[in-house]
Amino acid sequence: MSKEKFVRDKPHVNFGVLVLLLVASGGLMAAVSVFYLPNPLLSPSPTRDVDVDGVPDIVEDGGLRRVQANVSGSSLSITKIRANGVSPDVVTFSIQDVPGSLNIATEYAPDAATTATAIEHALTYNAILEYNDGNSNGMYDPASESPVQNYTIPALTFLSFGREGDQRLHVARYASTDGSFHATFHTREDYGTLGGGAGGILSPHGLKTTIRLESFSPAGPSTRLALHVILTSPASVSDISTTSEEAAGRASDEMGIRASPSASVSFEFTWPNKATVNSSVTVPVVPTPVQQDPLISSRFHVYLSIPHAVKFELDPITIPVLDDRTYQDLQSGDPDRPVIIGLAAAAGSLGGIAITEAVMKARGARITFGDGKRGRIPSG
User: Fold this and answer.
1) Is this model's pTM higher than 0.85 or not?
2) First to last CA, the chain
3) For 63-321, CATH number?
4) Per-residue pLDDT tens for 233-253?
């Protein structure tokens, strides 16, 4: 009797699972699953937007970033590495409290493997000036208007850094010892709310700062306040009326300044056109045109002015300007490329397979946040 030959003539997909499971009484269990996916799942619809935030899922998956935090005293370094792609890029924000000011250094490296920096800028919240608006134009003019009071930013204490809200939002909090000044920093693993302007979307490569001054004691009844911001940059800096996030449809009603060291990369410091004063009143923010320092050519000054207030809150954003990359842009194109779905670890005597949506590990003062829920396998 001849052996019957099997003929494969039906559509099929390769699907394999590799599981490593270590179980011990009172010990550790870990599971890793690898799935081989067909090509259609690696080509999601270019317009699909499951979370209805205006950012297509394929762009969200391409922009997803892992977050690492290093804390040393009152200094905090936030490293954001692209979660997908053969050569992921890196954005680093270094927050440092120095006497009388608050500094944010921003670095961008196109390739995490080489860490060669393409953008390197420093932003300093230097002081809050109280002044009399002699020409009634609403903005502070350092050439003709002298401050009647100079509020230097007090020494700040690092309070916390961790996930909040939808767990993709990471928040760092600082405050002065007397509680008069607060700085809160927001950054996200993905595109999501808490962006600039009117209800904007914060990009995963951006850092939003909320500056809040409580119980300010004005020197006069009709003075104005100006937040003095210094940008240190090797590139020329100019005012912009339309920010990159506005152009991408992720923000509205904001202004900013841009430094462009080359045609391919740039850096923006942006702010909404409105600020909140005395807890509930919304007022216009009037910026002074950016000015180059007469003594230090790499230093630029901008003053953000608001009306007389006892309390105020302003939400500027620091962001490297990066082109939106889709998930497809970052992949090799191999239809049977393995994709790591999740890694789980749990204590105790357990059986079975565990797969988790999020991974967090700590090494001393370094914390790494990763997310496997989105970006590993975009839905078709």
Assistant:
1) no
2) 47
3) 2.70.98
4) 988 899 998 999 999 888 889
